[in-house]
Amino acid sequence: MFLRGVASYLLLFFIILSDCSAAVHGYSHIVEKALPAVVTVRVRGDIAQRKAYDPMEEIRKEFRDIFGGQIVPRDNTQQERRPQFAQGSGFLISENGLIVTSRHTIVGASEITVSIGSDENRMKAELVGQDSVTDIALLKITSKNKLPFLTFGDSDKIKAGDILIAIGSTFGLNGTVTAGIVSNTSRNIEIGGYHFGDLIQTDASIYFGNSGGPALNVDGEVIGVNFALMSSAPGIGGSIGVGFAIPSNVVSTVVKQLAENGEVSHGYIGILGRDVTQKLAEAMKLPKSSGVLVVKVLKGGGAQVAGLLPGDVVLEVNDKSIDSVSRLRKLVSTSGVGQKVKLKVFRKGKEMVFHALTHKNVEDTGSSSFFNKETGLSVRDLVQSDRNSSDAAVGVIVCNVEKGSVADYAGILVKDILQEINEKPIKNVKDFEEACRSNDRLFTFSVLRDGSKLFMYVDMPD
């Protein structure tokens, strides 16, 4: 008994000693192993090639100066074919040269180069594929030697308070390392009208040039890809202790599809829902205040075929608990197309299990888009989710309003649906583009906003 007690105290002593050692020596042992696999990504593009609005343009505008580099020169017009340059970070995930980075760093690039270690060691990179939904891109370089690489950890296992280490090319300084903690494991943010959910929030300092770099745990595994930050002064790229990373479980699934197919097919089962609140849980007598309340089941979707009904509460997807709409969307989306997902559902006091077949999300096919410089409006065609949420059959949706533009002063907002211009029906982007070509100096709009129709006008300057 005495010997057993002594053994327990010795074990506790060595555990404490190990923790103290880590605190004294920091994380140099992790960084030394990871650093050779982190790269700087540089891109060269052509402004003249970007005539149409890209769905990620708002992200580039808000985060290019933080992560991807400044546009040079800033006074280019669309008619001038001058190069623009940007930079970010990335990391190797295989010895044969596959590199993960952020899509918004490389989108629109005509040439991509990466530096491993010093700036002198630059190599041309090939774009294998990219995914606008998750903002992940996969690159490939060719080398005669086997390359160092990082492995993915399980982002579902991280908790608030865990150590997080970020590596990237801060302000072009290769191999800059910062550390902090995980502040939140499921943060939702919106950028330019686009929703990004279930992100890892961290207070590790993230600056200009970090986008696409790895976020590591104390085992040196990648638990996220550095994505965005909040800054008190947009465009300067200063950290205020609020940064975001895309979870590794999402990234690894996306990367696998990009490597195999060059594109990503996101799973979709056809439900609209809302987060379950404490009051809602009490009213519905749920076992706990989590899950997603099914508000609408879309006709012909996998959920309808499986038997889900409005009023059901989804508690789990593939045996993983659901605490938000964004988590449900992520788990279904990353399951792929043509897969059966197991849904644990609460209905009228009972827990039930359904199996829904995923199909291709109609938004994956993309939609036509157009930017009109005179009005400052960027619009795109409606996709099915727009129609479901707004009951609009036709029109174009506003995805960006340029600050200070005539449309901005007129009060047009992102997510407004434009259905008529100068009393002419607008069914799609093509109709909008033709209407903007007119010589009229006054544009009247029939606008659908939050289910209500509005009449607005834009007075063009002479």
UniProtKB/TrEMBL annotation:
Signal peptide: none
PDZ domain residues: 253-349
Keywords: Hydrolase, Protease, Serine protease
InterPro entries: PDZ (IPR001478), PDZ_sf (IPR036034), Peptidase_S1_PA (IPR009003), Peptidase_S1C (IPR001940)
Pfam families: PDZ_2 (PF13180), Trypsin_2 (PF13365)
Hydrolase among keywords: yes
Similarity comment text for this entry: Belongs to the peptidase S1C family.
Protein name per Swiss-Prot or TrEMBL: DegQ family serine endoprotease
